[in-house]
Amino acid sequence: MRKNLWFWLTVVLAAAALVASAILLVDYVRPAPVFCDAGGGCAKVKATALARPLGVPLPAIGLVGVLGIGLAALVPGRGARIVQAALAVPGGAAGLFFVGVQAKMGVLCPFCAVVDGASIALAVIAALRWRKAWDPPRGRLVPAAAALGLVASIAVPFAVGFQLRAIPGDVPAAIAEEMRASGRGKVTVVDFVDFECPFCRMTHADFAPLLEERKDKVRVARKHVPLRMHPHALDAAKAACCGEALGKGDAMADALFLAPPHELTPEGCERLAAQQGLDVEKFRACVADPATEARIEKDKETFRAVKGHGLPTIWIDGTKLEGAQDRATLTEALDEAIHAL
Fold this sequence. Notes:
CATH class of the largest domain: Alpha Beta
Strand order of the largest sheet: 2-1-3-4
Number of domains: 2
CATH architecture of the largest domain: 3-Layer(aba) Sandwich
Radius of gyration: 28 Å
Strand content: 5-15%
Oligomer: single chain
Order of helices and strands: HHHHHHHEHEHHHHHEEH
Largest sheet: 4 strands, mixed
Structural class: alpha+beta
CATH superfamily of the largest domain: Glutaredoxin
Shape: elongated
CATH topology of the largest domain: Glutaredoxin
Low-confidence stretches: none
């Protein structure tokens, strides 16, 4: 086993570099990054002139080079050792260079660091293999399994990366998180509401039918921001959270918006829950659970984090609508987002 340590180190390092290169390449060719932070070190490195030599994305060059190193390591003989060294030594030099570039820029691209570090180590191993005439383990099974692992190291990040949503960098983190939760093929609506707010009620009356008509293309995440000026807003928010927890979120929200504000008392909310077919005992337990109010506090923190100022505030994917909205505006924003999928 120790005799073939160089072989296994090569396979592991090459696989790690291939995964990181594939991730970077996905973010280079997608309209917005899906793996990297839009404002982080990856984006800063990508913005340099070095990122696309002769118009070719740098991760594509790295991916081809590392794959060649890994495959050469699986083949016995002098020719394979020459190919491995010929690819790995320049790759290691490039890795050292790009480590220096990042250090000079004062940034860290974590995926770049994996590729650069692995490339340097692969260069050392390739030079030692050439010098000591090491060859891979005998037989076909081990090299074949290693080759399959190298291919999977490219295929898996590609398969995942092209299924994830590309989210523009100017979308707040909390909204981007909800968009990722929706996945591709669905528009995300993040609706910040207070059930006593008259403008929320007006907007909901127009918005609910539009959402119902497009329910196959839309995922709604309702966030609760009960205002202190509204005496029953917190009770209604708890009722809505518990309706959601018990599987009747939309129906309970509709009932709360339709009920007269003075009926949104704890008793009134309980009656609404019973009318929606919820188990009253489970509903009471949920309302009394401190986790329910903690969830509402988290929603309020999210509202502040996305710089919400007034209610209702609705995010339709990356578009923010603040204040009361008419049906035409809501329809246009919703359909534009659906067409952009």
